[in-house]
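Morning run. Coffee first, then this:
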Amino acid sequence: MARQPLGEFAKRIEPSDAKPLTRQVEEILRQAILRGDLPQAARVHPVRDLSRRFNVGKSTVARAISNLRREGLLSARPGRGTYVVTRPGEAQRVISGCLGLVWDGSASSLHEIPYYGRLYEFISVQAALRQQRVLLLPLRAETSRFHGLRHIATLEQEGHIDGLIYLVNWRVQERLVTLAVTRRLPLVVVDCCPDSRRADAVVVDNAAGARQLTERLLQLGHRRIALVTSTQDNINMRERVQSIRATLAAAGLRAPSRLIIRLNPPGLQGGREAFRQLVSLAPTAIVACNRYVAAGVILEAERAGRSVPRDLSVCAFGSANDAVPGFDRGLTVAAFDLEEMAVAAVECLGRRLQDAKAPYRILRVRMFVRDEGTIGVAP
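And here it is:
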């Protein structure tokens, strides 16, 4: 159907302290649809035309149209424009069948970190099982101009993505959360929680995993337990340290601050350096924040003539699907399944698409201790 004349409904809007401009545009368009001024299947005028007629910015009109799509009054057809739905009021939440997967870095860096590369693959498989596609949306530039928040906003405005899954490598970018909330775009944050608690999140059950690992060490007679963590201030690091300290306190022990080493970055070399800092303090067990740090601790301990686990027990946190390249030995870990995390993320986004007003939730993926021979009885 051709576009309808702009008509009287598209009147100029004057700024008002009582009501935001976006809300005013929404109400005018909503009433035009419900009255029939914009009939069913009619194509809505381009944003630039409505912007001129309403006397507001194009971004204001775009946000209003986006919100009405979320209500089910408008439907975006990628490459063809925005239309009034055939049955006004009927929710049409799944628009394109495409999920945006937001990544903290550049496109190539995703696969340089095996943990996130595998998680991306698992999410893509889970989406495909639900007849959905995944579009990778890097936040940082490489050679392409298609990156960052502006690109994500454009895709959402044009109806190319139904929702976002955000893989967090460092800290949550709250600007992305604000973008999603403002545009009513469903968002699930993976492996971290936004400080604002304005989005669903999927994280591992850090407290339970750290408690299980610490209790196993206590059962083996360890009393001087060191912790090698990261300078990263995110939910994973905080919860693990807090849980280890709480478990030790429940056993009548404490973790002296000198037995807690914070690394940046937390990698293989950092693990080697951490052992050199701790060796004079004679811990009987070292808990590392990831497999790479643990591997560095083991390699440096053995270079110094220590046997693992006879002289020193070493364990870590990590995915059950991960491994350290070039380190061909087993490692005792508090583990979690990346595929389980991917399933939780896709299902959580699906529920949000069905019920946009549901309370935000934090889903926790279970952790379990996988003993592969690097912890033993305290010497």
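Residues 338-354 form the longest helix (17 residues). Good start to the day.
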